[in-house]
Amino acid sequence: MRENGITPNETQLCSLLRALFGEEGQERDRQKGLEIFQQLVDDTSVNLTEVHFDMAINVCEKDGLWREILSLATAMGSRGISPHSMTCNAVLKACVQLGKSDVALKLLGTMARDGTELDRVAYRTVLAACARARSWDEVLKLYAEVEAEHPSFLGPDLALPAITAMCEVGRNDEAIALYRETFGGMLAQQQTRSSGSDPIVLDARRLSPQVGGILMRCALEDAVARADATAARAAPRMALAGFPPSRPKDILIAVNAADLDDESALPGSTAEMLLQVGREVLGAEGSLECQQTPFPSVRVPGLSLQSLLVQQVQQAVSDFEGSPQSM
Is residue 326 one of the residues assigned to a domain? Predict the structure, then answer.
């Protein structure tokens, strides 16, 4: 361009790139557009900014051109251009899509040290990638960093990989505590939302087997505690009215259809973990089952919860009778 006496400004370059890449919904030869953009990158007389690179990287992300994204990010660095947070997210996603979670983790650390403005999407991307790679120590270190430096980023999507990691390294009590801290309010809301004899419906479709197991344990504990409190309040009135005491509601925990083979849980699935933990908590009385209707789920019958409630009462009586206060 310099040889032809043309020195486009930023606005003119943006107009050129919009013509090359097309507006939303327009058909363009994006590959040809990217080739022309690479020529602009190679021409040091062209003053490209982060806006221009953002446009090109956005096109690459839409088309899944992950290697091209990394190449453009390298070109930005060589020109001394600091990326926007959206560009950082695209670069981190490209590393993950190419199976380089370790590179994404190192790059995230470098960006943070360099003062690059990062958002929660960047941390979520890398946390999830490290979890898929089973790099549990890295998951826990990164989550602790978010807790310390970016507490406003915390939320269920960031907590789930950390809870799974805690389970994997044997920090089960911490995993349960983090689960309750993150999801306790939602779990209670779901349990109180059902009315009459309607079952309590919970969702484990996006949960790892480890987190699904914690969901089952907390759901059973909360359901029994709720039934116990409800029975204590209502028992006198129901007895006077001649009604039998109400039993706990059934619990339906939705799972992915791929977790089930007909009405059996597949090995290693979240459904299998739900059954395992449920039977561990309920014991021999726990008649849990998988079902396909009304949707793929694991069902905990209310009668099983009633048996657990009776066991807890009997254990409390036994503990009291054996205590010094009862003598």
Answer: no
97's CB contacts (< 8 A; 6+ apart) are 64, 66
Domain total for the chain? 3
- Asked if residue 66 lies in contact with residue 98, where contact means CB atoms within 8 angstroms, the answer is yes
Residues 278/290, Cβ–Cβ less than 8 Å: no
Tell me the residue type at 120: R
CA distance 73 to 143: 26
Q: What pTM, to 2 d.p., does this model score?
A: 0.77
Confidence of residue 145 (pLDDT cuts 50, 70, 90): very high
Whether 23 maps to a domain, the answer reads: yes
Residue at 211: amino acid letter: V
The answer for residues whose C-beta is within 8 angstroms of residue 117's C-beta and 6 or more apart is: 84, 85, 88
**Same domain, residue pair 317 and 200:** yes
Strand partners, 252: 201, 299
- 199 and 240 in a single domain? The answer is yes
Per-residue pLDDT reduced to its tens digit, 15-56? 878 887 876 655 667 788 888 888 888 888 888 888 888 888
Shared domain for 180 and 136, answered yes or no, is yes
Sheet-wide strand order for 289-291: 200-203, 251-254, 297-300, 289-291
Within 10 Å of residue 301's Cβ, how many Cβ atoms?
Answer: 20
CB-CB contact of 278 with 214 (8 Å): no
Residues 172 and 270 both lie in one domain: no
- Return the SS3 of 262: coil
Inside any domain, residue 129: yes
Query: Are 210 and 176 found together in one domain?
Result: no
| Contact by Cβ (8 Å): 203, 254 | yes
Domain boundaries, position 5: 1-81
Do 218 and 278 lie in a common domain? yes
Is 167 buried (19+), middle (13-18) or exposed (0-12) by CB count in 10 A? buried
